[in-house]
């Protein structure tokens, strides 16, 4: 069972941990192609887009007319009023389509670097044919999934990991998670390019983004004395009031989340957190220390910690050679922290 606030992260987790019959995926893809062919003369209407000027303007800016027409038809076929009820077969087609939208080079959209959450426009016209590339993308998703190896299906919930209200106290055997790093990646900047085709408009996605752990919204945490203690542990030098306030919110978010993990875990069972360090306005922030400090405060005992280098090709933000102080430098290593309830 898993939780994520971001509908795309949740969908990818769900698809990645649910068995599927491959022939059913291809049958559904044939139906999708037939549907698009039959309706190719019409502009498919999508209510959540067509009733929202901001989302329409966004599409107008980031997508060329032909890809918009193709995406509208595909979205009409795949969309479910309630994504909980969309079949897993269709979910696979959604993830495969997302790969053609959230990409390094411009594909279905006019943006580059959407996959690195830094979309920027480098082309004004687009001859990318979504239908031509869709089949290969599905093949890629199916081969990465390797469905036969999945022993049991998971349930991925759209929800806040700081409030695991579905889960009773002391009922969980193990937790594996990777919380966001302070100020590191704004996933929604890239993910919205895909999510707008599946029932979400921009204002809805903005609201989700602002409730994410580590979101750049300065709110005082209410853990004053504890936070002062953390600050003296971190020994930060050049930190202004705004950064301190962001860090305070981040600390509070992590603390509340860790409290929930502690609550749901059975006694002495373990939680494994993967977290990278980051830098904020030039100051190196040891997120791993913040996490351990919070874990300790909610009653966890740290039982192990290892550090691994993130290979260049696995990095969410690519390394740019010769730029030692660049954005990408933050993401060089990550800490794997094991703790016992
Ligand atoms: C470092 S990523 C890990 C993604 C994925 N679980 C994985 O391991 O590949 C952090 C994830 O935390 C999610 N997130 C941020 N705040 C959250 C919250 N309050 N509740 C649940 N998920 C949250 C983000 O949407 C993002 O997908």
How would you explain this protein's 3D organization?
By secondary structure, the chain is α/β, with parallel strands linked by helices. It folds into 2 domains: 2-149, no CATH class; 156-340, Rossmann fold (3-Layer(aba) Sandwich), CATH 3.40.50. 43% of the residues lie in helices and 15% in strands. The chain is built from 12 helices and 10 strands. It has helices at 7-15, 22-38, 47-50, 53-62, 65-78, 88-101, 130-145, 187-195, 202-210, 224-234, 241-264, 287-297, and strands at residues 2-4, 111-112, 120-121, 156-158, 172-177, 265-276, 278-280, 283-285, 301-309, 333-340. The strands form 4 sheets. Strands 5-6-10-9 form a 4-stranded mixed sheet. Strand 2 and strand 3 (120-121) form a beta hairpin. Helix 2 (22-38) crosses helix 5 and helix 6 crosses helix 7 (130-145). 33% of the residues are buried. The protein binds S-adenosylmethionine (SAM). S-adenosylmethionine binds next to strand 1. S-adenosylmethionine is lined by residues 3-6, 9, 160-162, 178-180, 187, 212-213.
Short account of what is shown:
This protein is of the alpha/beta class.
Order of adjacent strands in the largest pleated sheet: 5-6-10-9
* Beta-strand share of residues: 5-15%
Mean pLDDT: 89
CATH architecture of the largest domain: 3-Layer(aba) Sandwich
> How many E-type strands?
10
Could you list the spans in which at least 5 consecutive residues all have pLDDT below 50?
Answer: 318-325
> What gyration radius follows from the Cα positions, in whole Å?
21 Å
Give the count of helical stretches: 12
Task: Give the distinct bound molecules.
Answer: S-adenosylmethionine
Biggest β-sheet description: 4 strands, mixed
The SSE string, one letter per element, is EHHHHHHEEHEEHHHHEEEHEE
Could you estimate the helical fraction of the residues in percent?
40-55%
Shape: globular
**CATH class call of the largest domain:** Alpha Beta
Number of domains: 2
**N- to C-terminal distance:** 19 Å
CATH topology title of the largest domain: Rossmann fold
Query: What kind of assembly state do the chains in view correspond to?
Result: single chain
Query: Structural class per helix/strand content?
Result: alpha/beta
């Amino acid at each position: 069972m898993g939780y994520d606030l971001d509908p795309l992260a949740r969908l990818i987790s769900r698809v990645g941990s649910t068995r599927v019959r491959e022939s059913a995926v291809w049958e559904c893809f044939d139906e999708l192609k037939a549907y698009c062919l039959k309706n190719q003369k019409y502009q498919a209407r999508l209510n959540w887009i067509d009733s929202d000027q901001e989302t329409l303007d966004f599409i107008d800016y980031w997508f060329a007319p032909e890809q918009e027409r193709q995406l509208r038809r595909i979205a009409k076929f795949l969309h479910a009023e309630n994504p909980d009820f969309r079949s897993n077969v269709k979910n696979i087609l959604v993830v495969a389509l997302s790969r053609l939208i959230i990409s390094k080079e411009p594909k279905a959209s006019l943006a580059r670097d959407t996959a690195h959450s830094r979309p920027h426009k480098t082309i004004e016209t687009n001859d990318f044919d979504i239908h031509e590339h869709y089949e290969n993308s599905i093949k890629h998703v199916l081969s990465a999934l390797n469905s036969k190896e999945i022993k049991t299906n998971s349930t991925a919930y759209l929800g806040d990991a700081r409030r695991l209200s579905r889960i009773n106290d002391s009922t969980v055997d193990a937790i594996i998670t990777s919380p966001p790093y302070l100020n590191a990646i704004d996933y929604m900047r890239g993910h919205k390019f895909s999510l707008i085709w599946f029932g979400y408009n921009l204002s809805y996605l903005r609201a989700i983004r602002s409730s994410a752990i580590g979101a750049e919204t300065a709110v005082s945490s209410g853990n004053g004395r504890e936070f002062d203690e953390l600050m003296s542990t971190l020994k930060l030098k050049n930190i202004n009031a705004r950064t301190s306030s962001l860090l305070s919110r981040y600390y509070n978010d992590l603390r509340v989340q860790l409290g929930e993990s502690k609550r749901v875990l059975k006694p002495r069972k373990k939680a494994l957190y993967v977290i990278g360090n980051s830098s904020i306005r030039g100051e190196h922030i040891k997120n791993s220390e913040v996490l351990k400090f919070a874990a300790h405060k909610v009653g966890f005992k740290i039982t192990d910690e290892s550090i691994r280098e993130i290979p260049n090709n696995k990095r969410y933000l690519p390394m740019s050679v010769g730029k030692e102080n660049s954005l990408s430098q933050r993401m060089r290593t990550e800490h794997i922290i094991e703790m016992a309830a």
